[in-house]
Amino acid sequence: MGLTKSEIFTDKQNKLASMMKALAHPARIAIIQHLLKANACINGDLVEVLGLAQPTISQHLKELKTAGLIQGTIEGTSVCYCIEPKTWATYQKEIGALFAAYKGPDNCCG
After folding, report:
1. 8-23 residue pLDDT tens
2. Residues 7, 10, 12, 16: what is their CA dihedral angle, to the nearest 10 degrees?
3. Contact 75, 42 (CB under 8 A)
4. Are the CB atoms for 88 and 69 separated by under 8 Å?
5. 3-class state of residue 42 by DSSP
6. CA nearest 23: which of 81, 79, 88?
């Protein structure tokens, strides 16, 4: 795979791409949707809800946690995950601004 040449893009463009990459898998979207609905969950619950193997879910949780989208607290031998509110607000603002920049077609390409 070739280099992305991220240095030719602005910090803001690179940050937005990184944010979107953290969400760029259907399993991660499903995890986020479950957390939004349940307001918290135990890692093991996701195995039943999503039907994926525990190691697969753990890898996706790691990606979401690394991106700062979720946080986890240890409860006994389990980890309880929830949305990280400050990062979530940043994602809403940045991704929302990208979509809000579109003003509609005046006469686009045709």
Report:
1. 999 999 999 999 999 9
2. -60
3. yes
4. yes
5. strand
6. 88
Tokens 């992305």 appear where? 4
Pairing between β-strand 78-83 and β-strand 41-42 as defined by DSSP bridges: antiparallel
Helices (H), 1-110: 11-22, 26-38, 43-50, 54-66, 85-100
Cα 2 to the chain's mean position, in Å? 24
Task: Copy the structure tokens of residue 18.
Answer: 């990184």
Least Cα distance to 20 among 89, 71, 95 occurs for 95
- pLDDT for 58-80, tens place per residue? 999 999 999 999 999 988 888 89
Residue 33, exposed/middle/buried by CB under 10 A (0-12, 13-18, 19+)?
exposed
Could you tell me the two tokens for 39? 């307001």
Residue showing tokens 């994602």: 91
